[in-house]
């Protein structure tokens, strides 16, 4: 299997293209600072990940910005810190400010010359519109949890992806799913028979951070530490 075997790349966005952990921490810092015992960086991320994932399962119909507001409320309750609903709503909107990783935009612009590019994201359309302006690349399709009515790792999201790309003439074996989260993306991609490329943004750190770790490590057809490494590997494959 080679990178040049594929016609389309499908991306998770937050955590893969966007530095969501930096965005989460910046938005949670004022709340955590008010806690009697301030949680560490990793404790903040793990607590966020647990509450976010639980809320996605409980309320898959909610827009992601609304789901984030409830996640913030749950964190405030667990840390025993008073928080107004306005603060919760502001946290949901903080996603608008989350920035791409430094290598993302250049890598996407390069990859756009060689693949059709798609997004499959646990987000709502209005929030992604803010992110899309930062990515500065015209995607061939954007599929959100709001469109689908469920959140990854629900297989419905990947069934939707395959149906949408199939309607554009792209066969499953010509799709490479590119993502950071083993739990949200790669385990489900394995179940659906999709080729899988892990962007290990947390290399050098232990634990899953803001994403829960799966019980077993999924199959990974390619592995890189950044989008920049993926683009470089494609250049090398073309040259070879």
Can you give a write-up of this model?
The protein has two domains: 3-19 and 100-239, 3-Layer(aba) Sandwich (Rossmann fold), CATH 3.40.50.1000; 20-97, DNA polymerase, domain 1. The protein has ten helices and six strands, in the order βαααααβαβααβαββα. It has helices at 20-33, 41-58, 64-78, 85-93, 104-112, 125-135, 145-148, 155-167, 182-192, 227-239; strands spanning 8-11, 116-121, 141-144, 175-179, 195-199, 222-224. A six-stranded parallel sheet has the order 3-2-1-4-5-6, sandwiched between helices. The mean pLDDT is 95.
Brief write-up:
The chain is an alpha/beta fold and 240 residues long. It folds into two domains: 3-19 and 100-239, Rossmann fold; 20-97, DNA polymerase, domain 1. It has helices spanning 20-33, 41-58, 64-78, 85-93, 104-112, 125-135, 145-148, 155-167, 182-192, 227-239; strands at 8-11, 116-121, 141-144, 175-179, 195-199, 222-224.
């Amino acid at each position: 299997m080679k990178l040049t075997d594929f016609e389309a790349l499908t991306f998770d966005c937050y955590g893969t293209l966007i530095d969501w952990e930096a965005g989460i921490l910046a938005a949670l810092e004022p709340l955590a600072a008010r806690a009697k015992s301030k949680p560490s960086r990793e404790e903040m991320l793990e607590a966020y990940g647990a509450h976010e994932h639980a809320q996605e399962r409980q309320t898959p119909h909610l827009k992601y910005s609304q789901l984030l507001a409830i996640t913030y409320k749950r964190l405030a309750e667990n840390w025993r810190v008073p928080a107004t609903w306005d603060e919760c709503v502001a946290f949901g909107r903080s996603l608008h400010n989350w920035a791409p990783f430094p290598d993302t935009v250049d890598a996407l612009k390069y990859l756009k010359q060689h693949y059709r590019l798609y997004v499959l994201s646990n987000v709502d359309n209005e929030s992604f519109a803010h992110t899309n302006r930062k990515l500065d690349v015209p995607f061939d399709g954007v599929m959100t949890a709001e469109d689908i009515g469920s959140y990854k790792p629900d297989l419905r999201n990947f069934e939707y992806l395959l149906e949408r790309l199939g309607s554009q003439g792209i066969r499953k074996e010509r799709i490479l799913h590119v993502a950071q989260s083993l739990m949200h993306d790669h385990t489900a991609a394995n179940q659906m028979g999709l080729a899988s490329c892990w962007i290990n943004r947390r290399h050098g750190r232990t634990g899953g951070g803001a994403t829960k770790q799966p019980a077993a490590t999924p199959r990974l057809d390619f592995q890189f530490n950044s989008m920049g490494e993926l683009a470089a590997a494609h250049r090398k494959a073309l040259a070879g």
